[in-house]
C-alpha cells in the first residue's frame, strides 16, 4: 500500500482579512504525479508555499513526508518559475546543478560525492554533454532541465514544479513533461500549472484551487468542472501531436 507523502487537514490561510484558502483537506500518495490548477489569484502559489513550509496555516495542519513541511525541506526539490537572469553572469551548467548540493556536506568545499550526484542528475535529464557550457547559452528548455537537475542533485524524494513550462516553446514543453513522467516512476511530483488541458494528459489527479480546494481524477475533468474552477467560460487550446491544416482546435466551456 502506498504511503501518504502530503496530508492537508482542515487547513485555512489568510493574508490579513483576505481569506485565500478555506477548510482545505486532501492527501497525496507516494509516486503520484499531481497537477495543481486554478485561476490567477485563486491560491495556487499560496498552497505551494504552505506545502513547502514557507508559510504557516492559520488553522488546520499540513504534514509532508511525515513531518511539518519546514522539517522536511531537505527532502524536497523545488523548481520555481524561470526568472530573468544576468546573461553575463559566468556560471556553467554544472555550477547551477551543484547548487542543489548546498547544505548536504559538513561545510567546506563540495566533495567528490557532491560532484557525482550532480553529474548523475545531469545524466537523468539527458544534459551531461552540456555540463561545461555556460548556463546563459542554453535554450529555454535546456535551462529548465538544468533546474530540474539541480533539484534532483539534492537527493529529493518529492519534487515541486511551479509552471515548469513557462517561457519555453511547445516542443520543449512536451519534452519536459515526458521527462517528468519518467522521473515520476521513482518520485512524487507536484506540478502547478495554468494549463489544465495540457497538464491533465500527464497527471493522475488534479487539485483544483479557487479559495476552496477539490481533487479530481483526470478522468473526471470536464467542461463543468473547468467552469467551476475558473468561474467563467474559458477558451482552451487542444494540444494534439500535430495540427490539422486549419490549425489548433479551440473548445469553449
What would CATH call the architecture of the domain at 4-84 and 159-252?
3-Layer(aba) Sandwich
Instruction: Identify the CATH homologous superfamily of the domain at 4-84 and 159-252.
Output: P-loop containing nucleotide triphosphate hydrolases
Total helices: the number is: 7
- Portion of residues within helices: 25-40%
How many beta-strand elements? 11
Mean pLDDT: 83
| Euclidean distance between termini CA atoms | 38 Å
Rg calculated over all Cα atoms: 19 Å
- Inertia-based shape: globular
Q: H/E series, N to C?
A: EEEHEEHHHEHEHEEHEE
Question: Strand arrangement, largest sheet?
Answer: 5-6-7-3-8-9
Give me some keywords for this one.
253 residues; Rossmann fold; 3-stranded antiparallel β-sheet; 27% helix; globular; disordered C terminus
List the helices and strands and how they pair.
Elements: E1 4-15, E2 18-29, E3 33-37, H1 44-52, E4 59-64, E5 76-79, H2 93-98, H3 112-124, H4 140-153, E6 158-162, H5 170-183, E7 188-192, H6 196-199, E8 205-210, E9 212-217, H7 223-230, E10 235-238, E11 249-252
Parallel strand pairs: 3-7, 3-8, 5-6, 6-7
Antiparallel strand pairs: 1-2, 1-4, 8-9, 10-11
